[in-house]
Amino acid sequence: MSSFPTDFHYKKHNEPQGTQGTYAEKTSSKLVFKSMVTGHTVTFKAFLTEYSQKMDTTWNTEQVFGRMDPLATFQGTRRSISLAWSIPAGFLAEAKNNALMVNGLVAMLYPGYSKSNIEVDGTTVTTASSIAKPPLMKIKFANLITSSGSKSGDGLLGYVDGFSINPDLEMGMLIDGDKQYFKVINISCNFNVLHQHDVGFDSDGEWLDGEGYKDWIFGDSDG
Q: Most Cβ neighbours (<10 Å): which of 122, 168, 175, 216?
């Protein structure tokens, strides 16, 4: 049985169409997903079509007799990032590689299982018995999606609600014998960030992570 690949990467080559890849390398315009289950990565040329961040605070409210306003107790702040991007293919080999990258990306939605051996008709069979690792992942895109503080430069840790994969049928297909490959694939997701350090202020009104706030949302460490 072949081992699972550790790296799914956009196609690099010396043909004229390769200028997209060269641009991505020189400008860090790469959208990188990393599985916390296997450690494998999927790297796309970042043709972003949607990018937005949302911060939601959660409060527990209780209406008390005689008060106009409810009593509100703060519970926490959640951060999420909505992303959408396109994966174009200018030639057949790139279209095939794009399909493989999508497979590697979707694989990140599945957990890691612990193994156990059972006997079936005198044969030992290895089965997945219980979840050992949840399908967490990290995402990085230049300075716009990155970690801050002591882990500055690393990807953000979190989980996605799922991936929406929508090939652009109007752009057509590339044919290889009896197989067809999409010229353009559009993908979108909602990424829920898991904080890896305390976020907020101390009793002196100072940011808990020192100057980590400069690298926080948009990674502007030079600000």
A: 216
